[in-house]
Design goal:
The protein is mainly α. It has one domain: MetI-like (MetI-like fold, Orthogonal Bundle), CATH 1.10.3720.10. It contains twelve helices and no strands. Helix 3 (87-123) packs parallel to helix 6, helix 3 packs across helix 9 and helix 9 runs parallel beside helix 10. The two termini are 38 Å apart.
């Protein structure tokens, strides 16, 4: 009887540990989803959420500290910058700029890279070799350095940043999707479709592409933070989004000379960049563990 009680207690503890283990494991998905959802909602409703216009200046209120710091005011919860512009409002509008640039660049690179990867894998032979050599050349260039060169040549601007980020971003998608497509191309259902005379474009679109979505979704999730970080870096260098439109990178640059007396100007947008980049990476890792069948078997 006593042995039975000990056994039941051990089973309860095991079930409890398993439950808490599942909760801790799922935090890798829950927290990033919350952060990214808040980012999307903030970007969409920036006009409603921002307490002030992003370009409204007030020189008498410049370098005002956050509300909880001595000298701060509840009018400007996160303080103001060197021109008296509200940091919170500019951070909210900056979320719209950073997210829209990132998503547009990801859409362009994902479409081009996926199409080339599937086409190269299915056609094989010289076509596959040629496409992969082009991919190798594209991957050999430092992407951020080339993006900076393009932005300097064309001048700062919204679509210049999107084009610069998309110039080489497609190569990574092409290589990964090509590898996954090679595995699918050798499947029995693809061979059956070829025997039945299904056109090549239909096989690529209806048979191969759906089986690469798991890899594509993981790549897109991981690149959200990467592209936001790249856009922020370009804006920090002054070759990204032109003023007065706010960007998190340009906001960090605005306060780099005042870190000793107005630390909040650069700190809060820097924290936002870090949170979004880490959330995208954590969510991408979690999706990879869930969607990759090779990892699910481990």
């Amino acid at each position: 009887m006593i042995a039975g009680l000990f056994k039941r207690n051990e089973e309860k503890q095991y079930r409890g540990m398993t439950r808490w283990g599942r909760i801790l494991r799922n935090l890798g998905m829950i927290l990033p989803v919350i952060v990214l959802t808040l980012l999307i909602v903030t970007a969409i409703f920036a006009d409603v959420l921002a307490p002030y216009p992003y370009d409204e200046t007030s020189l008498p209120e410049r370098r005002m500290p956050p509300a909880w710091v001595e000298g701060g005011s509840s009018k400007h919860f996160l303080g103001t910058d060197t021109l008296g512009r509200d940091i919170l409002s500019r951070a909210i509008y900056g979320a719209r700029v950073s997210l829209s640039v990132s998503l547009l660049a990801i859409a362009i690179t994902a479409i081009i890279g996926t199409a080339l990867g599937i086409f190269s894998a299915y056609m094989g032979g010289r076509i596959d070799a040629f496409v992969m050599r082009v991919v190798d050349v594209a991957l050999s260039f430092p992407p951020l350095l080339l993006a900076i060169l393009i932005a300097v040549s064309l001048g700062p601007g919204y679509f210049t940043v999107v084009f610069a980020l998309s110039a080489l971003g497609w190569a990574g998608y092409a290589r990964v999707i090509r590898g996954e497509s090679l595995r699918v191309r050798n499947s029995d259902f693809v061979a059956q479709a070829v025997i039945n005379g299904v056109p090549a474009w239909r096989i690529m679109l209806r048979h191969i592409f759906p089986n690469t979505l798991n890899v594509l979704i993981i790549g897109i999730t991981l690149n959200v933070g990467t592209f936001i970080l790249a856009e922020s870096g370009m804006s920090y260098l002054g070759i990204g989004i032109p003023p007065p439109m706010p960007s998190w990178g340009s906001m960090v640059a605005d306060g780099r000379n005042d870190l000793d007396r107005a630390w909040w100007i650069s700190t809060f947008p820097g924290i936002l960049i870090g949170m979004v980049v880490m959330s995208g990476n954590f969510l991408g890792d979690w999706l990879r563990d869930k969607l990759d069948p090779r990892l699910r078997q481990l």
